[in-house]
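Q: My labmate handed me this sequence with no annotations at all. I'd like to see what the chain might look like in three dimensions before we decide whether it's worth expressing. Could you predict it?
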Amino acid sequence: MMKQDGISLIKQIANSDNLKLASKKVYQNKGAAGIDGVTVHELDAHLVKYGQQMIEKMRAGTYQPQPVKRVSIPKDNGGIRNLGIPVVRDRVVQQAILQVIEPIIDPSFSTYSYGFRKGRNAHQAIKQAEQYVSEGYKTIVDCDLRNYFDTVHHQKLMNYLNYYIQDKIVLRLIWNFLKAGIMDGNVFIENYKGTPQGGVISPLLANVYLNQLDRELEKRGHRFVRYADDFCIYVKTPRAGERVLKSVTTFIGGNLRLEINTEKSKVTTPAKAKFLGFTIWKTQGKSEAAHLRRLNSSSVTDSEN
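A: Here is what I predict for the chain of 305 residues:
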């Protein structure tokens, strides 16, 4: 996978055409400025001045991203979600990497992974959940990962990436982004784990990491749906649900070094489970058909976590 059509992976990433395409995408996505204050409206001028230098550093593996800007936003449940906003130049480099490696990696992901993938969305995930319930799998193991994006183990993530990418310079660039650090106001914070929400490449890396969970669930023969860090497993009895919740918690802690939020994770029923803002229920006279009822007024989009 280091070469495609005779061109090394890093050269497919670090060239003026790919960088221009990445810049256009970053501009379309808008977003706030990072710690240097440069906005997406200044991108063209920035790349005219520094684009060739960026390409040379990327190809040499010496490109050093700046720390991400920490922004905290409130969650619906009253908690806080920390976002990490890269400077726009780093967003362009991440986008350039993503454009080349995503087509290599994504086809190997599980059929039952729906979040942050082209051609897949939350509504498809909900329809899959609906199908399980219609087939009689009416006990739901509703799992919540505690602070997932902040707790991804860097070295394990790189080990997983090695399966897809053998180009050491590309891997070094990704490692540099993972280790760029965080600016919280005027305070620099080293990050020993996690992949900041807000980074262009973070959703793909999140799926790379949790693909190990998907494959384990498939190996065990479970029926499940995962959308980013939200996932539910569908079984036939509460007793089976309790057993599955216990064994999956052990796997996630021991193999992935992640933590199940025991306060939010539970064995429940379709009428009580909330997945991506929906619950599943049945209407009288349609005993075989599961229907969906929205629990809040906002629409489900591919960016929901």
